[in-house]
Amino acid sequence: MSAITLTGVDLHYPDGTVGLSGIDLDVRDGEFVALVGPSGSGKTTLLRTVAGFLAPTAGLVCLGDEVVADGAHTVPPEKRKLGMVFQQHAIWPHRSVGRNVAYPLEVGKVSRARRAERVAEVLELVGLPGLAKRDPATLSGGQRQRVALARALVAQPRALLLDEALSALDEPLRDRLRLELRTLTRTQNLTVVHVTHDRAEALALADRVVVLDSGQIQQVGTPEELVQRPRSAFVAKFLSDANLLHGTVSDNGFSSADGTVHVGRDRLADTSSGVGTLAVLPTDIAVTTVENVGTTQGIVMSSLFGRDASDVVVSCDGAQFRCAVRGTRPVVGDRVGLTIRRALFYPDPTQVAAPTLGAAALASTSR
Ligand SMILES: Nc1ncnc2c1ncn2[C@@H]1O[C@H](COP(=O)(O)OP(=O)(O)OP(=O)(O)O)[C@@H](O)[C@H]1O
């Protein structure tokens, strides 16, 4: 069964700003879903709508089979049985760790003995065994965030909502907590909705990632689907830093609008044609230091070391290509050859195909 379902959800703020528009989303029981998107795309609005801090102007929000908001009525946050963790650990300084964690149980009038038992259980779960009596002021940032997580989990919520919960932590602690969080949510079969600015974090943690823009869902999919088959040039650019080129696909392949780049038909991932946008992922460009005849040549403009692949920007006839280079890293000023191994084409539905440009006049990027 779906743990969280949003159907046709719109949310307009009182000043008329559209926070969410036509959101349809199903989060399955035990699933870890990450929400990503540019600043202002609606991630927090969506999370707060699920939590009950915001009421949709239209549409339905269901938790399990309970309708918690239907545009007219909304169940308040404290009655939704959800756990929340925010970026800034909201730990009360005047309460011990144990009493911080026990708070939801106190509100729920759970007996003192059962509270103590359950607090000990969740502190163990989040890696803070035996710390119930500690003053929160004596804890590190990472430990405080674990306390916040323990408090969110203590009353056995139907789902866990994380709003940039790891963002305030420094690496490598953040990395470690990320792994622990994934293990914990998996072993406990928790349903999680996680808002993050960090694309790598979303792709690493989530079963499915939701990409938002302008209050609308652009794509929902597994990390593999989103990276290998982004549904739009926007998703390819946002998640994978794709290079975008405007132009036309004809029988000969793609030709950029300015005539400087040609990509053979055999390199295009699908058979669409017409006017539109070509997206080339940095990992789909081969950079060679030897200038092979037939490859497009360019100059390295920047070259940043990366553990798996270096992030290299090459300028070719005025177009800049971001490339992921494995192995020897070229240096700024190097003349290199570029070959596009694969490209995705997104026809613009509002445009009719322009006449085919003379391919002979174009630089060849793929032969
Ligand atoms: N209280 C409010 N009143 C009016 N507009 C708002 C309010 N809160 C958010 N918005 C607007 O709603 C849209 C979505 O905002 P939201 O905070 O959900 O985006 P976000 O993706 O979480 O952004 P960020 O990554 O910067 O946190 C934005 O245009 C924002 O300016």
Automatic annotation (TrEMBL):
Which organism is this protein's natural source?
Rhodococcus jostii
InterPro entries xref list: AAA+_ATPase, ABC_SmlMolc_Importer, ABC_transporter-like_ATP-bd, ABC_transporter-like_CS, P-loop_NTPase
Q: Extract the SUPFAM superfamilies matched here.
A: P-loop containing nucleoside triphosphate hydrolases (SSF52540)
Sequence ranges assigned to domain ABC transporter in this UniProt record: 4-239
GO MF terms, alphabetically ordered: ATP binding
| Keywords for this protein | ATP-binding, Nucleotide-binding, Transport
Write the protein's name. Answer: ABC transporter ATP-binding protein
